């Protein structure tokens, strides 16, 4: 397993609680849309065994052509040891990334694509939308639906409806409105539905989609193959 040590080159406050840590791209490091990586803090591999409290599984919110690895995360006032350390890191500090993989590349099957997310889960979808804007081949259209009770919506400059690009984006601030809209979207019995959020969020979405006739092979989750059976 190759561990890439790299430096934080910029920290962006996306909202009052959400930050994006931009990392230098190490030589030889590549990724595609929908990728996640293991993001680790200094000292995680100092002992005989990796210190798992210093490692998190994170989505990459950028694409390679942006020349930066974006890690977008919510850091609340009351947070874990990992988030507490991360909050105090400054530009120039080193972090590690390894085991990078995409479970959710953009589906190009000449169908409508629906991106369903909660809160900062939208970070996983930012690269898919940018990839679609660069190359719309074999995608009919994309609709993004995000629920965030904070009302501080993320990446609104990217997630902005564009009729000419056949892209629509919707933000709601409560679960009732969100699930009503999911039911409406499920009227498309041939669509592809991506879902990103907590495990409970995934299960609730899958339940609604299945109740409305969407089959498991139409649902995409940011989970490894061996984890899918637990949800689908």
Automatic annotation (TrEMBL):
Residues 1-107 form the FAD-binding FR-type domain. It comes from the Bacteria. One of its GO terms (molecular function) is oxidoreductase activity. InterPro entries: FAD-bd_FR_type, FNR_nucleotide-bd, Riboflavin_synthase-like_b-brl. This is Dihydropteridine reductase.
């Amino acid at each position: 397993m190759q561990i890439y040590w790299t430096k934080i080159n910029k920290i962006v406050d996306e909202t009052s609680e959400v930050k994006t840590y931009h990392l230098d791209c190490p030589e030889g490091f590549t990724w595609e849309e929908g990728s996640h990586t293991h993001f680790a803090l200094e000292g995680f591999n100092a002992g005989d065994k990796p210190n798992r409290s210093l490692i998190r599984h994170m989505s990459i919110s950028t694409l390679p052509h942006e020349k930066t690895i974006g890690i977008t995360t919510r850091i609340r006032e009351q947070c874990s040891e990992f988030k507490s350390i991360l909050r105090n890191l400054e530009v120039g500090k080193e972090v590690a990334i390894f085991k990078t993989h995409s479970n959710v590349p953009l589906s190009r099957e000449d169908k409508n694509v629906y991106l369903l997310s909660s809160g900062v889960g939208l970070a996983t979808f930012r690269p898919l939308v940018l990839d679609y804007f660069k190359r719309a081949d074999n995608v009919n259209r994309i609709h993004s639906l995000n629920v965030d009770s904070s009302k501080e919506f993320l990446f609104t400059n990217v997630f902005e409806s564009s009729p000419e690009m056949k892209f629509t984006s919707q933000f709601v601030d409560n679960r009732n409105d969100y699930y009503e809209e999911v039911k409406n979207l499920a009227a498309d019995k041939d669509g592809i539905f991506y879902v990103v959020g907590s495990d409970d969020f995934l299960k609730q979405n899958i339940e609604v989609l299945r109740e409305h006739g969407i089959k498991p092979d139409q649902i995409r989750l940011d989970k490894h193959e061996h984890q899918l059976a637990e949800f689908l």
